Please model this.
Amino acid sequence: MTLIPLAAFHDNYIWIIEDKDSSGIWAVDPGDAKVVLNFCQSQQKNLEGILITHHHKDHTGGVQKLKQTFDCQVIGPKHLSHLITRGVEQDDIIEIYGRQYRALETPAHTLDHICYFSDAETPILLSGDTLFKGGCGRLMEGTPEQMLNAMDRLKQLPDHTLVYCTHEYTLANYRFALSLDPENETLITENQVCQALREKQAITLPSNIALEKASNPFMRSHLNSIVMRAAKQLNETPATTSIEAFAQVRRAKDTFS
Model:
């Protein structure tokens, strides 16, 4: 099984799940139907299914056309009844080319957000807009407590889990991360690697859980040094509880330039 990134819009990725023994594919969060249609035509593939992580248009905008064109399965949050053929919730299992994916509800960026986790020899997390390389999603509908809960749950996944998010936000995330964690050698090194990749127009993904735990400020908001620097950026008093600390780091990112 292979995951192939298709660039869409300014900085989105539509992930294609492909199996070498199948002429079919699945698409994750196809915001732009044309991108997937072009891939299917050029590679002579048939779209058999779609996974949706949340309702935002840049993740769902192409679903209706693709569904009509291929008569494929569409799996996602239950309330998207106009788009899906099957709604899923926490711990529901989806099987794609012999590999099982478990739905993980991670409300915060949106209240309907679902990640998909496959615990195989090489675990995979399709993280949508919850966990980015070096960052997390904006709190468009949910609360800091919900996003902190999501980060804490994802931190429990195996360290070697590959993380496939849906935006090329890495360098911007790392600029902020370095402002809070300037002596973090893992972060410094990975930032250099990703800068070189982007200079070649190459993708910086996937990440992995071990790297995120070592470098992502939203998985490290329990560290006093990070909270102190976030508070300084905001001209605030440092937070004293875990939820307030996470919220302070998130606010610092929201206002960072």
